[in-house]
Design brief:
about 110 residues; mainly alpha; about 0% strand
């Protein structure tokens, strides 16, 4: 019974997120007028909500891979002569920030 109630509440929540907003009271959107075309913002929002868990997992995997590769590379760069060390370290830092930095969620 609890599973049935939980499934029903989840379905209602998703339906409420996907429903269109109420029509304004100024008469512009009267009930006799045809419905407006689907707003692309709703589709983007739904895709962002569904895609965020996958994006998060992919981002975490890429960040972990970057860490595994970048850590030894920085250690090797510590042994390199000074003029070559800083530009390469800056490149590694930028790549690490790009792969492991925000955002971790998709925005619509």
């Amino acid at each position: 019974m609890r599973r049935l109630v939980g499934s029903g509440l989840l379905a209602l929540t998703l339906a409420a997120c996907a429903s269109t907003p109420a029509r304004p009271a100024d008469g512009v959107g009267s009930p006799s007028s045809p419905p407006a075309p689907t707003d692309p913002g709703v589709a983007r929002t739904v895709l962002a909500v569904i895609g965020t868990p996958f994006f998060f997992l992919f981002k975490v995997a890429v960040c972990a891979t970057t860490t595994v590769i970048a850590a030894p590379a920085v250690a090797i760069l510590a042994l390199v002569e000074e003029p070559y060390q800083h530009p390469k370290r800056d490149e590694l830092s930028e790549g690490f920030a790009k792969n492991c930095g925000s955002p971790y969620i998709l925005s619509p």
